[in-house]
């Protein structure tokens, strides 16, 4: 799988996150409306918040955050946290 990594500094679920890893899966169907810059902006909207996982398969917790508003457009972000790690993994993102 092809993935890209970016540095970031946000706090999510009281964890200091310093890296975002974006899976390129979104490019197959959503590349006309989403790119890495948009995904990074969406991830930044998570800063300072706590989320309950939608699913857990240790060591991963999976989250779906819907209706994130960015530039008057709504997006859905599917992401994960790994136990004892300091990154957010973005599985998919698309415009609603």
Task: Please name the defining characteristics of this protein.
6-stranded mixed β-sheet; single chain; 6 strands; 96 residues; mainly beta
Walk me through what this model shows.
- With 96 residues, this protein is mainly β.
- It is built from 2 helices and 6 strands.
- It is 14% helix and 54% strand.
- The longest helix is centred in the middle third of the chain and has 9 residues, at 36-44.
Radius of gyration: 12 Å
What is the H/E order?
A: EEHHEEEE
Spatial gap, N to C terminus: 25 Å
Helix content: 10-25%
Main sheet: strands, sense, barrel: 6 strands, mixed
User: What spatial form do the alpha-carbon principal axes imply?
Assistant: globular
Record the strand order, biggest sheet.
1-2-6-5-4-3
Into which percentage range does the β-strand content fall? over 45%
What would the average pLDDT be, to the nearest integer?
Answer: 95
Total count of strands: 6
DSSP helix count? Answer: 2
Question: Gist?
Answer:
The chain is mainly β and 96 residues long. It has helices spanning 27-30, 36-44, and strands at residues 3-12, 15-23, 55-57, 60-70, 73-82, 87-95.
Give the SSE map.
Elements (H helix, E strand, L loop, with lengths): L2 E10 L2 E9 L3 H4 L5 H9 L10 E3 L2 E11 L2 E10 L4 E9 L1
């Amino acid at each position: 799988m092809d993935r890209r990594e970016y540095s970031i500094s946000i706090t999510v679920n009281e964890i200091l996150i310093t890296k975002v890893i974006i899976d390129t899966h979104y490019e197959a169907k959503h590349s006309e409306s989403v790119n890495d810059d948009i995904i990074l902006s969406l991830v930044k909207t998570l800063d300072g918040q706590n989320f309950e996982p939608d699913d857990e398969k240790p060591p991963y917790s999976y989250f779906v955050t819907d209706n994130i508003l960015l530039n008057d457009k709504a997006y859905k972000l599917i992401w994960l946290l790994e136990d004892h790690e300091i990154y957010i993994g973005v599985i998919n993102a698309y415009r609603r």
